[in-house]
Amino acid sequence: MMQPTRQHWDDDAVTPPATTEVARLELAALCRLLARERLTPIGGARVAARDPENQSSYLIHPAAPLFEEAKPSGMVTVDRDGVHQDTREREPDAGTLAIVLAALEARSDAAAAALIASTAGCVVASLEVGLLPITQAAFMFHGAIGTLDVDPEADSDAIRRGVADALGDGRALLVRGRGLLVCGETLAQTWKLLFFLDKCCRSQVAAMAAANSAGTPLTIPSEEVVTHAVAQSRGFVEHPRYVADWPSSLDQLDREDPSWRE
To answer: What is the rounded distance in angstroms from the CA atom of residue 192 to the CA atom of residue 177?
Structure first.
């Protein structure tokens, strides 16, 4: 992840978009940032944002073009079933998109949701133990991340119920066979949650491989340490400082390719 050059929390970072135009812009930024960090395998990522001017509609990045080519003008509007507002055609890969839209319905306070099938995310989602509290970043999610098994034959209503039950009051899920799902109060928070969740998974996969190679078990912090660290981490996630580098991230996108705002 590129280091930010400017940090402050402003309205864009700590409040949801107030207009469709801003939602489109920030959704495009989310796509570009995910692509830059190589978190968008081809055909393995879906993002959506609530349309602030029409609560029954959602803005999504369509199946094409690639995330690194995302622009506000390329975002499309769909209903809760993934049907395009303009063409009335259903978006391809409706199953993955249905999970993302279900998360937005389940968390009415969420401005955006994203699901990525990163390699490490899919590995950790497949483990019975799930995400382990073995890194500082993992404490952000410990005790607040669920696991979702998706029936490939489930209809939309069943998917919505399953996602709502698995999410509960949390903001993240390990989705078996599909990777990592997060939903944030802002686009900035959605980005940071997904970045750090994937980082946790990459660290865990590496640690498990190293432990297996050395023939030793993983070292898990004591319950007392975990409890203390979780409380600290949750406080950080809820503080504006957590998304203070969002403006700087947009600055970086401007320097890399100003056309992303078109």
So the answer is: 22
| CB atoms inside a 10 Å sphere around CB 147 | 14
What SS3 class is residue 72?
Answer: helix
Based on its alpha-carbon atoms, the radius of gyration of the chain, rounded to whole angstroms, reads: 18
Contact 34, 66 (CB under 8 A): no
Kindly tell me if the per-residue pLDDT of 245 is higher than 90: no
Indicate the CATH number for domain 11-261: 3.40.225.10
Q: What is the pLDDT of residues 140-160, one digit of tens each?
A: 999 999 999 988 888 889 999
Which phi-psi region, left, alpha or beta, contains residue 41 (left: φ > 0; alpha: ψ -120 to 50)?
beta
Distinct helix (H) and strand (E) counts, the chain:
8, 7
Full-model pTM: 0.91
| Structure tokens given for 8 | 């402050």
Report the alpha-carbon distance of residue 260 to residue 143 in Å, rounded: 37
- CB count, 10 Å around CB of 236? 12
Distance, CA of 245 to chain centre: 17
- How many angstroms separate the CA atoms of 257 and 250, rounded? 11
How many Å apart are CA 57 and CA 59, to the nearest integer? 7
Show me where the domains of the chain are located: 11-261
